[in-house]
Write a structure and sequence with these properties.
4-stranded parallel β-sheet
Amino acid sequence: MMRYKLVVDSCCDVTHELREKLPVEVVPLTMKLGDDSFVDNCKLNLQDFLAKMKAYKGQVRSACPSPGDYAEAYQGADNIFVVTLSSNLSGSYNSAELGKRLMDGDSTNEVHVFDSKSASAGQLLIALKISEFIEQKLENKEIIKNIEAFINGMKTFFVLDNLDNLTKNGRMNKIVGKVASVLGIRPILGADGEGNIAFFSQARGADAAIKKLAATIGEHCSNTCEKIMVITHCNNLKQANKLKELVSAAYSFKEIFIAPTGGLSSMYANEGGIIVAF
């Protein structure tokens, strides 16, 4: 019997409950506030990290897992499917591929690395789809083909209260971030299909932004009946539930998951951030 394993980097916001259900191993990234490093694993005190990040005036940074970290995670299964942060936002994908090469000749394990072209909710959604295909006992080639097609059709959107860390780290246009901050505008941002961050629309105020996000979902998804939606949030369960209510009333998603963001996702989403993928 084939043994399967899912390997994800820690920007994939897998809940403790899902970790018990899925054959998943999380490889942590590291967040850096000056000389202080925080490993994004189950030992991270997220509230302490967020408080220190809020007080820190410099540029926050992150470091992806090493190829050796990935190679170690690939042990213990016959077939390994890997889901990483968008390769345009992090070196995690390249590191995962290098980890695969470290195993060449030393292992019969089959490893396939997926570039999520997304983050957080998008990565979790991909992991759930892989698990679904494994349960259906699809062949490896079928799983890979189906997941690559799924990634190309997946949509990721997000609304953040604070864009500072995205702009400081060059993840989005500094002018957009500055204008949004000064005018109190909350832009609806998302993946452009290639793993970069793009601007889609805007709203003024948190409630209006959630309503606009719900409307944006409808504009980009005509058939929701067979789709799963994942919503992740940084200390903002109230707005995550509000979005779920709006989406449930307007559309017919098969299932909607809500999960809190981990360390890396929280670093960029900041307090109050909402991310959705479908």
